[in-house]
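[stage:ingest] chain + small molecule (uridine-5'-diphosphate)
[stage:ingest] validated
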Amino acid sequence: MSAPPGPANDRRYDYLIVGAGFAGSVLAERLASQHGARVLLIDRRPHIGGNAYDEPNEAGILYHKYGPHIFHTNSDQVWDYLSQFTEWRPYEHRVRAMVRDQLVPIPINRTTLNKLFDLALQTDEQAAEYLASRAEPVEDIKTSEDVVINAVGRELYELFFQGYTRKQWGLDPSELDKQVTSRIPTRTNTDDRYFSDTHQAMPLHGYTKMFEKMLDHPLIDVRTGVDFAEIKDQAHEIADHIIYTGPIDEYFDFRFGKLPYRSLKFDHRTLNEEQHQPVAVVNYPDPSVPYTRISEYKHLTGQDSPVTTITYEYPSAEGDPYYPIPRAENQALYKRYEALADSTEGVTFVGRLATYRYYNMDQIVGQALATFRRMDERRKCLGEPLATAVAAE
Ligand code: FAD
Ligand code: UDP
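[stage:predict] done
[stage:export] C-alpha coordinates:
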Protein backbone atom coordinates (compact mmCIF):
# COMPACT_ATOMS: atom_id res chain seq x y z
CA MET A 1 0.00 0.00 0.00
CA SER A 2 2.95 2.35 -0.02
CA ALA A 3 4.99 2.47 -3.27
CA PRO A 4 4.05 5.63 -5.14
CA PRO A 5 3.02 5.09 -8.72
CA GLY A 6 5.64 6.31 -11.17
CA PRO A 7 7.65 5.45 -14.25
CA ALA A 8 9.10 2.33 -12.56
CA ASN A 9 5.71 0.72 -12.11
CA ASP A 10 3.98 2.58 -14.88
CA ARG A 11 0.58 1.20 -15.54
CA ARG A 12 -2.21 3.01 -17.19
CA TYR A 13 -5.41 3.34 -15.25
CA ASP A 14 -8.78 4.54 -16.43
CA TYR A 15 -9.15 6.65 -13.28
CA LEU A 16 -6.90 8.23 -10.73
CA ILE A 17 -9.03 8.95 -7.68
CA VAL A 18 -7.63 11.35 -5.10
CA GLY A 19 -8.94 10.71 -1.57
CA ALA A 20 -10.11 7.40 -0.08
CA GLY A 21 -13.01 8.80 1.96
CA PHE A 22 -16.65 8.16 1.11
CA ALA A 23 -16.60 10.18 -2.12
CA GLY A 24 -13.48 8.55 -3.56
CA SER A 25 -14.20 5.03 -2.32
CA VAL A 26 -17.79 4.91 -3.57
CA LEU A 27 -16.69 6.05 -7.02
CA ALA A 28 -13.77 3.59 -7.08
CA GLU A 29 -16.15 0.77 -6.20
CA ARG A 30 -18.82 1.77 -8.73
CA LEU A 31 -16.41 2.34 -11.61
CA ALA A 32 -14.52 -0.92 -11.03
CA SER A 33 -17.55 -3.12 -10.39
CA GLN A 34 -19.96 -1.59 -12.93
CA HIS A 35 -17.70 -0.34 -15.72
CA GLY A 36 -14.81 -2.73 -15.38
CA ALA A 37 -12.60 0.34 -15.02
CA ARG A 38 -9.06 0.15 -13.68
CA VAL A 39 -8.79 2.49 -10.73
CA LEU A 40 -5.86 3.88 -8.81
CA LEU A 41 -7.09 5.31 -5.50
CA ILE A 42 -4.63 7.42 -3.51
CA ASP A 43 -4.78 9.14 -0.14
CA ARG A 44 -2.14 11.20 1.57
CA ARG A 45 -3.11 9.84 4.94
CA PRO A 46 -1.71 6.45 5.92
CA HIS A 47 -5.16 4.84 5.71
CA ILE A 48 -8.44 4.61 3.82
CA GLY A 49 -11.83 5.83 5.09
CA GLY A 50 -11.21 9.59 5.13
CA ASN A 51 -12.66 11.28 8.19
CA ALA A 52 -14.77 8.24 9.00
CA TYR A 53 -11.66 6.13 9.69
CA ASP A 54 -11.82 4.06 12.88
CA GLU A 55 -9.31 1.68 14.44
CA PRO A 56 -8.84 -0.22 17.69
CA ASN A 57 -6.46 1.65 20.03
CA GLU A 58 -3.88 0.08 22.35
CA ALA A 59 -6.61 -0.80 24.84
CA GLY A 60 -8.58 -2.54 22.09
CA ILE A 61 -11.33 0.09 22.01
CA LEU A 62 -12.63 0.92 18.53
CA TYR A 63 -12.42 4.73 18.32
CA HIS A 64 -12.85 7.30 15.56
CA LYS A 65 -9.59 9.06 14.84
CA TYR A 66 -11.32 12.16 13.46
CA GLY A 67 -14.17 12.47 15.92
CA PRO A 68 -17.48 10.64 16.33
CA HIS A 69 -19.22 9.53 13.14
CA ILE A 70 -22.82 8.42 13.46
CA PHE A 71 -24.57 7.10 10.40
CA HIS A 72 -28.10 8.28 9.64
CA THR A 73 -30.04 8.69 6.41
CA ASN A 74 -33.50 9.00 4.93
CA SER A 75 -32.27 7.61 1.65
CA ASP A 76 -33.11 3.95 1.00
CA GLN A 77 -30.78 4.08 -1.97
CA VAL A 78 -27.77 5.10 0.16
CA TRP A 79 -28.72 2.62 2.87
CA ASP A 80 -29.08 -0.26 0.41
CA TYR A 81 -25.85 0.64 -1.32
CA LEU A 82 -23.75 0.65 1.87
CA SER A 83 -25.50 -2.45 3.17
CA GLN A 84 -23.66 -4.43 0.49
CA PHE A 85 -20.46 -3.81 2.42
CA THR A 86 -21.47 -4.01 6.05
CA GLU A 87 -23.92 -5.36 8.54
CA TRP A 88 -25.32 -2.82 10.95
CA ARG A 89 -25.66 -2.34 14.67
CA PRO A 90 -28.94 -0.56 15.43
CA TYR A 91 -28.06 2.67 17.21
CA GLU A 92 -30.03 5.84 17.87
CA HIS A 93 -27.84 8.77 18.78
CA ARG A 94 -28.59 10.78 21.93
CA VAL A 95 -26.75 13.90 23.01
CA ARG A 96 -26.84 15.86 26.25
CA ALA A 97 -25.72 19.43 26.77
CA MET A 98 -24.04 20.60 29.97
CA VAL A 99 -26.02 23.72 30.81
CA ARG A 100 -26.21 25.37 34.23
CA ASP A 101 -24.46 22.34 35.73
CA GLN A 102 -27.09 19.96 34.42
CA LEU A 103 -27.08 17.44 31.59
CA VAL A 104 -30.16 18.15 29.49
CA PRO A 105 -31.32 16.86 26.11
CA ILE A 106 -30.24 18.67 22.95
CA PRO A 107 -32.11 19.15 20.54
CA ILE A 108 -34.15 21.17 22.99
CA ASN A 109 -37.31 19.21 23.82
CA ARG A 110 -39.98 19.21 26.52
CA THR A 111 -37.68 17.47 29.00
CA THR A 112 -35.03 20.15 28.45
CA LEU A 113 -37.53 22.89 29.25
CA ASN A 114 -38.91 21.13 32.31
CA LYS A 115 -35.47 20.41 33.74
CA LEU A 116 -33.90 23.74 33.03
CA PHE A 117 -36.76 25.98 34.12
CA ASP A 118 -38.33 23.70 36.72
CA LEU A 119 -41.57 23.40 34.78
CA ALA A 120 -44.15 20.66 34.50
CA LEU A 121 -45.13 20.87 30.83
CA GLN A 122 -47.18 17.75 30.09
CA THR A 123 -48.16 17.99 26.45
CA ASP A 124 -46.81 19.08 23.09
CA GLU A 125 -49.32 21.91 23.09
CA GLN A 126 -48.10 23.23 26.45
CA ALA A 127 -44.48 23.06 25.32
CA ALA A 128 -45.31 24.78 22.03
CA GLU A 129 -47.14 27.53 23.92
CA TYR A 130 -44.21 27.96 26.28
CA LEU A 131 -41.72 28.17 23.42
CA ALA A 132 -43.96 30.63 21.57
CA SER A 133 -43.96 32.85 24.66
CA ARG A 134 -40.13 32.95 24.58
CA ALA A 135 -39.56 33.00 20.81
CA GLU A 136 -38.74 36.29 19.13
CA PRO A 137 -40.16 35.99 15.61
CA VAL A 138 -37.71 36.98 12.88
CA GLU A 139 -39.38 37.92 9.63
CA ASP A 140 -36.59 37.10 7.23
CA ILE A 141 -34.50 34.26 8.61
CA LYS A 142 -31.03 34.56 7.12
CA THR A 143 -28.45 33.69 9.73
CA SER A 144 -27.83 30.94 12.23
CA GLU A 145 -28.76 33.39 14.97
CA ASP A 146 -32.13 34.17 13.33
CA VAL A 147 -33.06 30.48 13.16
CA VAL A 148 -32.67 29.90 16.89
CA ILE A 149 -33.95 33.23 18.21
CA ASN A 150 -37.03 32.75 16.05
CA ALA A 151 -37.66 29.28 17.49
CA VAL A 152 -36.73 29.57 21.17
CA GLY A 153 -35.79 33.14 22.03
CA ARG A 154 -32.59 34.74 23.28
CA GLU A 155 -32.02 33.02 26.62
CA LEU A 156 -32.05 29.49 25.20
CA TYR A 157 -30.10 30.73 22.19
CA GLU A 158 -27.36 32.02 24.45
CA LEU A 159 -27.38 28.95 26.68
CA PHE A 160 -27.23 26.32 23.95
CA PHE A 161 -26.09 27.88 20.68
CA GLN A 162 -24.14 31.08 20.89
CA GLY A 163 -21.15 29.86 22.90
CA TYR A 164 -20.98 26.50 21.16
CA THR A 165 -21.13 28.06 17.72
CA ARG A 166 -18.55 30.74 18.50
CA LYS A 167 -16.17 28.01 19.66
CA GLN A 168 -16.92 25.61 16.82
CA TRP A 169 -16.67 28.08 13.99
CA GLY A 170 -14.71 31.02 15.42
CA LEU A 171 -17.69 33.12 14.32
CA ASP A 172 -20.87 34.39 15.91
CA PRO A 173 -24.05 32.62 14.71
CA SER A 174 -25.10 35.95 13.18
CA GLU A 175 -22.14 35.58 10.79
CA LEU A 176 -23.07 32.09 9.63
CA ASP A 177 -25.60 30.91 7.09
CA LYS A 178 -28.87 29.66 8.55
CA GLN A 179 -28.12 26.11 7.39
CA VAL A 180 -25.66 25.60 10.28
CA THR A 181 -28.00 25.79 13.27
CA SER A 182 -30.97 24.65 11.14
CA ARG A 183 -29.44 21.18 11.46
CA ILE A 184 -30.71 21.11 15.04
CA PRO A 185 -34.53 20.98 15.41
CA THR A 186 -36.60 22.16 18.37
CA ARG A 187 -39.09 19.66 19.76
CA THR A 188 -42.19 19.94 21.86
CA ASN A 189 -42.33 16.21 22.61
CA THR A 190 -39.90 14.16 24.69
CA ASP A 191 -38.08 12.52 21.77
CA ASP A 192 -34.43 12.93 22.74
CA ARG A 193 -32.84 11.39 19.65
CA TYR A 194 -30.36 13.62 17.85
CA PHE A 195 -31.59 12.49 14.44
CA SER A 196 -35.03 11.53 13.20
CA ASP A 197 -33.93 9.74 10.00
CA THR A 198 -35.52 6.46 8.96
CA HIS A 199 -32.17 4.65 9.01
CA GLN A 200 -29.91 5.09 12.03
CA ALA A 201 -27.16 2.57 12.70
CA MET A 202 -23.44 1.99 13.02
CA PRO A 203 -21.44 -0.33 10.75
CA LEU A 204 -21.27 -3.51 12.84
CA HIS A 205 -17.50 -3.96 12.53
CA GLY A 206 -16.68 -0.28 12.06
CA TYR A 207 -16.23 2.08 9.13
CA THR A 208 -12.74 0.97 8.14
CA LYS A 209 -13.87 -2.63 7.68
CA MET A 210 -16.73 -1.40 5.53
CA PHE A 211 -14.30 0.59 3.37
CA GLU A 212 -11.96 -2.41 3.09
CA LYS A 213 -14.81 -4.48 1.72
CA MET A 214 -15.87 -1.74 -0.66
CA LEU A 215 -12.37 -1.45 -2.08
CA ASP A 216 -11.63 -5.16 -2.21
CA HIS A 217 -11.80 -5.47 -5.99
CA PRO A 218 -9.11 -6.74 -8.38
CA LEU A 219 -9.42 -3.63 -10.55
CA ILE A 220 -8.82 -1.21 -7.65
CA ASP A 221 -5.29 -0.41 -6.50
CA VAL A 222 -5.05 1.55 -3.28
CA ARG A 223 -1.97 3.57 -2.38
CA THR A 224 -2.03 5.37 0.94
CA GLY A 225 0.60 7.88 2.04
CA VAL A 226 0.63 9.41 -1.46
CA ASP A 227 -0.12 13.10 -1.90
CA PHE A 228 -1.61 14.13 -5.23
CA ALA A 229 0.89 17.01 -5.28
CA GLU A 230 3.68 14.44 -5.74
CA ILE A 231 2.18 13.00 -8.90
CA LYS A 232 0.12 15.86 -10.25
CA ASP A 233 2.46 16.48 -13.19
CA GLN A 234 2.17 12.88 -14.36
CA ALA A 235 -1.47 12.45 -13.46
CA HIS A 236 -2.73 12.26 -17.01
CA GLU A 237 -0.02 9.74 -17.88
CA ILE A 238 -1.22 7.55 -15.04
CA ALA A 239 -4.91 7.72 -15.87
CA ASP A 240 -7.30 9.10 -18.47
CA HIS A 241 -9.46 10.80 -15.93
CA ILE A 242 -9.00 12.24 -12.45
CA ILE A 243 -11.59 12.26 -9.70
CA TYR A 244 -10.53 14.70 -7.02
CA THR A 245 -12.07 14.73 -3.52
CA GLY A 246 -9.60 16.99 -1.67
CA PRO A 247 -9.94 20.74 -1.01
CA ILE A 248 -10.80 22.48 -4.28
CA ASP A 249 -8.68 25.58 -3.61
CA GLU A 250 -5.61 23.38 -3.08
CA TYR A 251 -6.14 21.68 -6.45
CA PHE A 252 -5.88 25.08 -8.12
CA ASP A 253 -2.88 26.15 -6.02
CA PHE A 254 -5.04 28.68 -4.14
CA ARG A 255 -5.26 30.81 -7.27
CA PHE A 256 -8.07 32.99 -5.94
CA GLY A 257 -6.93 32.80 -2.31
CA LYS A 258 -7.60 30.26 0.44
CA LEU A 259 -11.09 28.94 0.98
CA PRO A 260 -11.74 28.91 4.72
CA TYR A 261 -12.16 25.47 6.29
CA ARG A 262 -12.57 24.93 10.03
CA SER A 263 -10.31 22.43 11.74
CA LEU A 264 -10.36 20.50 15.00
CA LYS A 265 -7.79 19.08 17.39
CA PHE A 266 -8.77 15.74 18.85
CA ASP A 267 -7.61 14.74 22.31
CA HIS A 268 -8.22 10.99 22.62
CA ARG A 269 -7.99 9.50 26.10
CA THR A 270 -8.48 6.05 27.52
CA LEU A 271 -9.82 6.03 31.07
CA ASN A 272 -9.78 3.36 33.71
CA GLU A 273 -13.53 3.30 34.13
CA GLU A 274 -16.25 1.34 32.42
CA GLN A 275 -18.41 4.29 31.43
CA HIS A 276 -17.55 7.97 31.50
CA GLN A 277 -20.82 9.67 30.56
CA PRO A 278 -24.46 8.59 30.13
CA VAL A 279 -24.61 9.06 26.35
CA ALA A 280 -22.18 8.95 23.41
CA VAL A 281 -21.82 12.72 23.12
CA VAL A 282 -22.01 15.52 25.67
CA ASN A 283 -21.94 19.08 24.30
CA TYR A 284 -20.39 21.96 26.27
CA PRO A 285 -21.88 25.22 24.99
CA ASP A 286 -20.35 27.24 27.86
CA PRO A 287 -17.81 29.65 26.33
CA SER A 288 -15.49 29.24 29.32
CA VAL A 289 -14.96 25.55 28.48
CA PRO A 290 -12.38 25.32 25.68
CA TYR A 291 -13.70 22.19 24.00
CA THR A 292 -17.09 21.77 22.30
CA ARG A 293 -17.92 18.16 23.06
CA ILE A 294 -16.78 14.89 24.61
CA SER A 295 -17.57 11.63 22.84
CA GLU A 296 -17.45 8.12 24.27
CA TYR A 297 -17.25 5.39 21.66
CA LYS A 298 -18.51 2.39 23.58
CA HIS A 299 -22.03 3.83 23.34
CA LEU A 300 -21.74 3.71 19.55
CA THR A 301 -20.17 0.28 19.25
CA GLY A 302 -21.61 -1.58 22.22
CA GLN A 303 -18.10 -2.81 23.02
CA ASP A 304 -17.64 -4.49 26.37
CA SER A 305 -14.52 -3.49 28.30
CA PRO A 306 -13.50 -2.39 31.79
CA VAL A 307 -11.90 0.72 30.21
CA THR A 308 -13.34 3.38 27.94
CA THR A 309 -12.05 5.81 25.29
CA ILE A 310 -13.25 9.39 24.99
CA THR A 311 -12.38 12.29 22.69
CA TYR A 312 -12.35 16.00 23.44
CA GLU A 313 -12.82 18.26 20.41
CA TYR A 314 -11.02 21.59 20.32
CA PRO A 315 -11.96 23.72 17.31
CA SER A 316 -9.10 25.39 15.52
CA ALA A 317 -8.36 27.66 12.58
CA GLU A 318 -5.19 25.68 11.80
CA GLY A 319 -4.84 22.06 10.79
CA ASP A 320 -6.52 19.59 8.46
CA PRO A 321 -9.60 21.03 6.74
CA TYR A 322 -12.71 19.40 8.24
CA TYR A 323 -15.60 21.79 7.78
CA PRO A 324 -16.41 24.16 4.92
CA ILE A 325 -17.65 27.34 6.62
CA PRO A 326 -21.14 28.21 5.35
CA ARG A 327 -21.40 31.96 4.78
CA ALA A 328 -22.05 34.08 1.71
CA GLU A 329 -18.54 35.40 1.12
CA ASN A 330 -17.04 31.88 1.25
CA GLN A 331 -19.69 30.60 -1.13
CA ALA A 332 -18.83 33.41 -3.54
CA LEU A 333 -15.16 32.42 -3.47
CA TYR A 334 -16.08 28.76 -3.88
CA LYS A 335 -18.19 29.67 -6.93
CA ARG A 336 -15.08 31.09 -8.61
CA TYR A 337 -13.24 27.84 -8.00
CA GLU A 338 -16.28 25.88 -9.16
CA ALA A 339 -16.32 27.79 -12.45
CA LEU A 340 -12.66 26.93 -12.89
CA ALA A 341 -13.39 23.29 -12.07
CA ASP A 342 -16.22 23.22 -14.64
CA SER A 343 -13.85 24.42 -17.33
CA THR A 344 -11.10 21.96 -16.38
CA GLU A 345 -11.31 18.95 -18.66
CA GLY A 346 -10.57 15.46 -17.49
CA VAL A 347 -11.16 16.13 -13.78
CA THR A 348 -14.32 15.57 -11.74
CA PHE A 349 -14.66 17.23 -8.31
CA VAL A 350 -16.70 15.31 -5.73
CA GLY A 351 -17.00 15.30 -1.92
CA ARG A 352 -17.28 17.62 1.06
CA LEU A 353 -14.00 19.48 0.51
CA ALA A 354 -14.05 19.52 -3.29
CA THR A 355 -17.62 20.86 -3.54
CA TYR A 356 -17.36 22.96 -0.35
CA ARG A 357 -20.58 21.60 1.10
CA TYR A 358 -21.39 20.93 4.77
CA TYR A 359 -22.56 17.41 3.92
CA ASN A 360 -23.00 14.37 6.13
CA MET A 361 -21.67 10.96 5.14
CA ASP A 362 -24.92 9.82 3.56
CA GLN A 363 -25.15 13.00 1.49
CA ILE A 364 -21.63 12.41 0.22
CA VAL A 365 -22.50 8.82 -0.70
CA GLY A 366 -25.58 10.17 -2.49
CA GLN A 367 -23.48 12.77 -4.29
CA ALA A 368 -20.93 10.14 -5.38
CA LEU A 369 -23.66 7.76 -6.59
CA ALA A 370 -25.25 10.61 -8.57
CA THR A 371 -21.86 11.42 -10.11
CA PHE A 372 -21.49 7.80 -11.10
CA ARG A 373 -24.96 7.76 -12.65
CA ARG A 374 -24.06 10.77 -14.81
CA MET A 375 -20.88 9.04 -15.95
CA ASP A 376 -22.84 5.89 -16.64
CA GLU A 377 -25.48 7.71 -18.69
CA ARG A 378 -22.84 9.51 -20.70
CA ARG A 379 -21.08 6.23 -21.40
CA LYS A 380 -24.30 4.54 -22.49
CA CYS A 381 -25.38 7.52 -24.52
CA LEU A 382 -22.09 7.82 -26.38
CA GLY A 383 -21.79 4.08 -26.79
CA GLU A 384 -18.07 4.66 -26.84
CA PRO A 385 -15.22 2.85 -25.18
CA LEU A 386 -14.81 3.72 -21.53
CA ALA A 387 -11.80 6.01 -21.74
CA THR A 388 -13.25 8.28 -24.45
CA ALA A 389 -16.62 8.49 -22.80
CA VAL A 390 -15.29 9.52 -19.41
CA ALA A 391 -12.78 11.98 -20.80
CA ALA A 392 -15.77 14.05 -21.88
CA GLU A 393 -17.18 14.18 -18.31
P1 FAD B 1 -13.08 13.04 3.46
O1 FAD B 1 -13.59 12.00 4.39
O2 FAD B 1 -12.47 14.28 4.03
O3 FAD B 1 -12.02 12.34 2.49
C1 FAD B 1 -11.18 13.07 1.64
C2 FAD B 1 -9.84 12.36 1.62
O4 FAD B 1 -9.02 12.98 0.63
C3 FAD B 1 -9.08 12.47 2.94
O5 FAD B 1 -8.81 11.18 3.43
C4 FAD B 1 -7.81 13.23 2.56
O6 FAD B 1 -6.66 12.75 3.24
C5 FAD B 1 -7.71 12.96 1.08
N1 FAD B 1 -6.96 14.00 0.37
C6 FAD B 1 -7.22 15.32 0.34
N2 FAD B 1 -6.32 15.96 -0.44
C7 FAD B 1 -5.48 15.01 -0.90
C8 FAD B 1 -4.33 15.05 -1.74
N3 FAD B 1 -3.86 16.19 -2.24
N4 FAD B 1 -3.69 13.89 -2.02
C9 FAD B 1 -4.15 12.72 -1.52
N5 FAD B 1 -5.22 12.62 -0.72
C10 FAD B 1 -5.88 13.76 -0.42
N6 FAD B 1 -21.16 12.82 8.97
C11 FAD B 1 -22.20 12.07 9.37
O7 FAD B 1 -22.99 11.62 8.52
N7 FAD B 1 -22.41 11.75 10.70
C12 FAD B 1 -21.57 12.18 11.67
O8 FAD B 1 -21.77 11.89 12.85
C13 FAD B 1 -20.45 12.99 11.29
N8 FAD B 1 -19.60 13.43 12.22
C14 FAD B 1 -18.52 14.17 11.84
C15 FAD B 1 -17.63 14.59 12.83
C16 FAD B 1 -16.52 15.34 12.47
C17 FAD B 1 -15.57 15.80 13.55
C18 FAD B 1 -16.29 15.69 11.11
C19 FAD B 1 -15.09 16.50 10.71
C20 FAD B 1 -17.16 15.26 10.12
C21 FAD B 1 -18.30 14.51 10.47
N9 FAD B 1 -19.19 14.05 9.51
C22 FAD B 1 -20.27 13.29 9.90
C23 FAD B 1 -19.03 14.37 8.07
C24 FAD B 1 -18.25 13.29 7.33
O9 FAD B 1 -16.95 13.20 7.89
C25 FAD B 1 -18.14 13.68 5.85
O10 FAD B 1 -19.42 13.87 5.30
C26 FAD B 1 -17.45 12.61 4.99
O11 FAD B 1 -16.37 12.03 5.65
C27 FAD B 1 -17.00 13.28 3.71
O12 FAD B 1 -16.40 12.34 2.86
P2 FAD B 1 -15.41 12.83 1.70
O13 FAD B 1 -14.97 11.64 0.98
O14 FAD B 1 -16.05 13.94 0.94
O15 FAD B 1 -14.20 13.55 2.46
N1 UDP C 1 -24.94 23.65 17.75
C1 UDP C 1 -24.90 24.41 18.91
N2 UDP C 1 -25.06 23.77 20.11
C2 UDP C 1 -25.23 22.44 20.20
C3 UDP C 1 -25.27 21.67 19.02
C4 UDP C 1 -25.11 22.32 17.81
O1 UDP C 1 -24.71 25.61 18.85
O2 UDP C 1 -25.35 21.92 21.33
C5 UDP C 1 -24.78 24.36 16.46
C6 UDP C 1 -23.30 24.58 16.14
O3 UDP C 1 -23.18 25.76 15.38
C7 UDP C 1 -22.99 23.36 15.31
C8 UDP C 1 -24.26 23.24 14.47
O4 UDP C 1 -25.32 23.59 15.41
O5 UDP C 1 -21.85 23.55 14.54
C9 UDP C 1 -24.52 21.89 13.87
O6 UDP C 1 -24.44 20.89 14.88
P1 UDP C 1 -24.06 19.39 14.52
O7 UDP C 1 -24.13 18.59 15.76
O8 UDP C 1 -24.87 18.96 13.36
O9 UDP C 1 -22.53 19.58 14.08
P2 UDP C 1 -21.44 18.51 13.51
O10 UDP C 1 -21.83 17.17 14.03
O11 UDP C 1 -21.48 18.64 12.03
O12 UDP C 1 -20.17 19.02 14.09
